[in-house]
Design a protein that fits this description.
- It is a single chain.
- 27% of the residues lie in helices and 13% in strands.
- The protein has 117 residues and is α/β, with parallel strands linked by helices.
- It has a domain of 70 residues.
- Strand 1, helix 1 and strand 2 form a beta-alpha-beta unit.
- The N and C termini lie far apart (82 Å).
- It holds the Pfam family UGSC.
């Protein structure tokens, strides 16, 4: 009886090429000039924005009461009552831009936002 040995042919390996990437990416930092700060709230339009987190609306309701007491000439707009489509976490740049446009169209001089839990 003859014994048959398995074939021991050498496997051919392909040369691998690797590209090493920096996982932090490249950050392009552009300087931004902040908006001028208000010196008074008298006669200003103040928009209150709520993103639907628990109790955020309650806090903003209280802020609205205090503003009406302390700065009666200010116009206080509760965005969450005026445009219910804005009551959310935007979730995308497009939706954030849409909500920002709604606020801009209201003539806001100041926006107070609440993200409460």
């Amino acid at each position: 009886m003859s014994s048959i040995l398995p074939s021991m042919a050498a496997a051919k390996e392909d040369v691998q090429q690797w590209e090493v990437l920096n996982p932090t990416g490249i950050v392009d930092i552009k300087p931004v000039k902040p908006a001028p700060r208000l010196t008074t709230l008298e006669g200003k339009t103040i928009v209150l924005r709520w993103n639907d987190k628990h109790n955020g609306n309650n806090m903003l309701d209280r802020v609205a009461e205090l503003l009406k007491e302390q700065v009666p000439s200010a116009k206080v707009i509760k965005l969450y009552e005026v445009d219910k489509s804005t009551i959310k976490i935007s979730g995308s740049q497009k939706e954030s831009a849409r909500i920002a446009k709604v606020i801009k169209d209201l003539g806001a001089d100041l926006v107070i936002a609440s993200q409460a839990d």
